[in-house]
Amino acid sequence: MSGRYLVYGLAVAGAAVVRAATGRGIDVVVVDDSAPDGRRALAAELGVELVVAPSPDGLDSLVAACDVVVPAPGVPETHALFAAARRHGRPVHSEL
Predict the structure, then answer these.
(1) Which long-range contacts (CB under 8 A, 24 or more apart) does 39-45 make?
(2) What is the pLDDT of residue 1?
């Protein structure tokens, strides 16, 4: 699948999704609620944009600009990410 992926969470699973997607030529933007443990450096190493703690409107715009949403396993179903994906008709895919 081509297009742009929004990967939510840049820990172990998110980084693996980014590597797999970019290795297939897919454009990726990463969003995370926080940026501890050198996540900015990891995003730079992976060559992807990292958006940290976007506002609700910012998150909505990011989802609207993507084709597929890939949340990390720890993102709760009540997170605003899922409502934005539904609102914009974006499929949500699990890395599992």
Answers:
(1) 39/10, 42/10, 42/15, 43/10
(2) 55
